[in-house]
Amino acid sequence: MVRPTLLVGALASLALSLFTRATLAAHHPASEPISPKVMIITGFTPEREIWYPYNLTNDYPMPGFIPTYQNVSCTASDEICVMTMGQAEIGNGIAMTLLWSSPMFNLTETYFLIAGIGGVNPRYSTIGGVALARYVVQVEMGMAFAGSDLPANFSDLYFFPSFVTSPNQYPSLAGTEVYGLNGALRDKVASLVAEKNISFADNPTAQAYRSKYTYAPARAAPTVDKCDVASAEVYWSGEVYARNVEYYVDLISNGTAKYCNTNEDDTGTMAGLLRGAMLGKLDFSRIVIAKGNSDFDRPPPGLSAYQNLMEVAQNGFEICLQNLFAVGSTFINDLVANWHSTYKHGVKTQNYVGDVCGYLGGTPDFGPGHC
Ligand SMILES: *[C@@H]1O[C@H](CO)[C@@H](O)[C@H](O)[C@H]1NC(C)=O
Ligand SMILES: *[C@@H]1O[C@H](CO)[C@@H](O)[C@H](O)[C@H]1NC(C)=O
Ligand SMILES: *[C@@H]1O[C@H](CO)[C@@H](O)[C@H](O)[C@H]1NC(C)=O
Ligand SMILES: *[C@@H]1O[C@H](CO)[C@@H](O)[C@H](O)[C@H]1NC(C)=O
Ligand SMILES: *[C@@H]1O[C@H](CO)[C@@H](O)[C@H](O)[C@H]1NC(C)=O
Ligand SMILES: *[C@@H]1O[C@H](CO)[C@@H](O)[C@H](O)[C@H]1NC(C)=O
Description:
This protein is α/β, with parallel strands linked by helices. It is 31% helix and 18% strand. The chain has a single domain (14-22, 35-355), classed as Rossmann fold (3-Layer(aba) Sandwich), CATH 3.40.50.1580. The chain has helices at residues 6-18, 45-49, 89-101, 183-196, 204-210, 216-219, 239-252, 266-278, 305-311, 317-337, 339-343, and strands at residues 38-42, 58-61, 71-74, 80-84, 111-120, 130-132, 135-138, 142-144, 159-161, 178-180, 224-226, 228-231, 259-263, 287-296, 354-355. It holds the Pfam family NUP. Belongs to the NUP family.
């Protein structure tokens, strides 16, 4: 999940202040909006600064963005931009909406690379790895009982989807529960990474922690995995909570989504993007989600859920950021180099792209097909 330790945060701020940044504060004239080829969407300082090797010399202060991350920062050509939203779904939805409603940008052909870090489900991936998602699921919409209040016949399944009487019933929808992305674009990014034969960063502490698990995805060396995102504001740790989330993700997505990365951000970003797409301000089939896996969402045998979250240094944070940059920059460099031949007119997909309500048209492969 996206909370670094205080120490890492402090080091990151120090590192940030050491960067000297040539800047242009000038507002673009409204008559000439900026049309980046890619907008990289980040959540906080360590995620933002991995992109500084692109030399982000053009700063555009965005009205309404939080002061710490006021600027959308772009390369001299304005082809590659980075925005930072702060954390959590609500703020992200608002920041995205401010972005696409701003006259400063024309995002109709822009690709959005949602690039952050999060927790990892050891059944599908491992710390240091990078998830390329096709589905994004919001986890916390629902009703809950805990501890001795739990009806006895529900064992550890305590999370009830909205307005149903049993965890196995499909709930009534708010609309932000599931998003489907362009699978062809996701697969293209995965193939670019495979072709480039990137060597993924790793470290001995992460290796040792992985080796405590008894099953394969957790124990494997970090790489790119095609698996999905589950967002919730709750930063859980442990088998019981994780099993509830797996159950819910399976139910709400009709078995299409397999979450490997968990974070507090992405469904907010998706909700903002969806509304922009509904108004023709951006193209929902140009979204790539790449998420670095910083820490396991449940412990290996022999450790408690508390130890997993609070005590053990898993050391996935730095390596997953490095690997996220390796994956993201592979995509970005291809995007810029092959813009006209491959990307300008979009990457065609066979699958449904949009939200659970079908607000962009088409027939979702999850949910009831309408809201
Ligand atoms: C935004 O960019 C301007 C111009 O480069 C710079 O002076 C300012 O410090 C930046 N703000 C933040 C929060 O980075
Ligand atoms: C960024 O600027 C540095 C120093 O001028 C240069 O060496 C590097 O190649 C530039 N990187 C990119 C991606 O343009
Ligand atoms: C935005 O860019 C598209 C594609 O280049 C163009 O067709 C459209 O007119 C532009 N919109 C505005 C408001 O500049
Ligand atoms: C579980 O118990 C509740 C409360 O007693 C009851 O209403 C419900 O039907 C039971 N559900 C199942 C699946 O047995
Ligand atoms: C990929 O890189 C590894 C080292 O990182 C090397 O052993 C392997 O031969 C490379 N494979 C290809 C197909 O280039
Ligand atoms: C998803 O599951 C629900 C409940 O079982 C069902 O009503 C709905 O038709 C299913 N949707 C799809 C696309 O299979």
